[in-house]
TrEMBL record:
<dbReference type="Pfam" id="PF00107">
    <property type="entry name" value="ADH_zinc_N"/>
</dbReference>
<dbReference type="GO" id="GO:0016491">
    <property type="term" value="F:oxidoreductase activity"/>
</dbReference>
<dbReference type="InterPro" id="IPR013149">
    <property type="entry name" value="ADH-like_C"/>
</dbReference>
<dbReference type="Pfam" id="PF08240">
    <property type="entry name" value="ADH_N"/>
</dbReference>
<dbReference type="InterPro" id="IPR036291">
    <property type="entry name" value="NAD(P)-bd_dom_sf"/>
</dbReference>
<feature type="domain" description="Alcohol dehydrogenase-like N-terminal">
    <location>
        <begin position="24"/>
        <end position="144"/>
    </location>
</feature>
<protein>
    <submittedName>
        <fullName>Glutathione-dependent formaldehyde dehydrogenase</fullName>
    </submittedName>
</protein>
<keyword id="KW-0560">Oxidoreductase</keyword>
<dbReference type="InterPro" id="IPR013154">
    <property type="entry name" value="ADH-like_N"/>
</dbReference>
<comment type="similarity">
    <text>Belongs to the zinc-containing alcohol dehydrogenase family.</text>
</comment>
<keyword id="KW-0862">Zinc</keyword>
<feature type="domain" description="Alcohol dehydrogenase-like C-terminal">
    <location>
        <begin position="188"/>
        <end position="254"/>
    </location>
</feature>
<dbReference type="InterPro" id="IPR002328">
    <property type="entry name" value="ADH_Zn_CS"/>
</dbReference>
<dbReference type="InterPro" id="IPR011032">
    <property type="entry name" value="GroES-like_sf"/>
</dbReference>
<dbReference type="GO" id="GO:0008270">
    <property type="term" value="F:zinc ion binding"/>
</dbReference>
<keyword id="KW-0479">Metal-binding</keyword>
Amino acid sequence: MRALTWQGKRKVSVETVPDPTMTQPDDVIIEVTSTAICGSDLHLYEVLVPFMDEGDIIGHETMGKVVDAGPDAHLSIGDRVVVPFIISCGTCWMCRRGLTTQCETTQVREYGSGAALYGYSRLYGSVPGGQAEYLRVPHANTNPIAVGSELTDHRYLFLSDILPTAWQGVRYAGVGAGDSLAVYGLGPVGQFAARIGIHLGAQVFAVDPVPERRALAARYGVHAFELTDDVNDRIRDLTEGRGPDAVVDAVGMEAHGSPLGKLAHQATGLLPDPAARKLMATAGTDRLAALHASIDLVRRGGTVSLSGVYGGQASPLPMLTLFDKQVQLRMGQCNVTEWIDDLLPLVEDPLDPLGTDDLVTHRLPLSEAPSAYEMFQQKSDGCVKVVLDPRPRRSESAL
């Protein structure tokens, strides 16, 4: 099959690799019909290089049709499924408590990490990812989400990661009707977080340096602001001087305006991989501009919810400010399956209240994935979300 493989820092390529095979009775193999590039994939492209191996198949936002199924899979050939990016068993102590991100069956204990992820480095199990023609899906008796056949892939695909990630971020923020919410970063997760806030009845502000992303958010009633030195003051002025009740940081470890963090990332990337892995595991730092701005902006007694991915073990936090303002922090990988009952009716709603049909700016064949990664990282050509098509000869109506 053809698959997108990691080859080095800022270098990916589509290669011919062996087809996946089933190894357990609850496995299935899916033919991938749509697979998206996630903002988290850019961390593999740029920052988490020491934990990658040449030839790794990447990608963790995937859906498709079952073409082979084990006897314990609870799925049949022809079923259409969305694959959550978290690989969880559904039956362990953690999974039974809704913490599928901490699944005790798939935890990557070598690196002290939580549940394994598709296509996401040694830190999360080096499991082959879904930016490929086919994907092996383990624990298919509990993990995949079976969906109908009438709607396009765009309605369902984002249930794999970014839509439940945004939903969890807003739910962790604790906002509802009459509350105020700010979102730092209007990439795909930030776009959904802002729309979810509006859907739940909150007043929503958002900050992003890219005009096209601000314009897209504004179409949903979001008050979108350019990233300027005084943006927090401007938002405070609109919230009676206090700041919003909650802030979702949808940026993460590669924030703009963090020159020292960027320098640390670049320096680590120059080390041999074993040394770099050891340094990142003990003394790694993140670019923290978005997190610090979120802490500064949120009102006293408010909540900062982290949806953006952070990976530094020695990232400094303004503990005096956090303590003095009585700020609550909530964070973590998304427990995807916990939110599906809330989200599936929304993505199947004919009115499409969260705009799942409105997020994708580029749908490209898998063969163009290398240039798509570059475009997505550079935020060029108005790029907000890229979906890759492993079978470009079929028509969109055949989804």
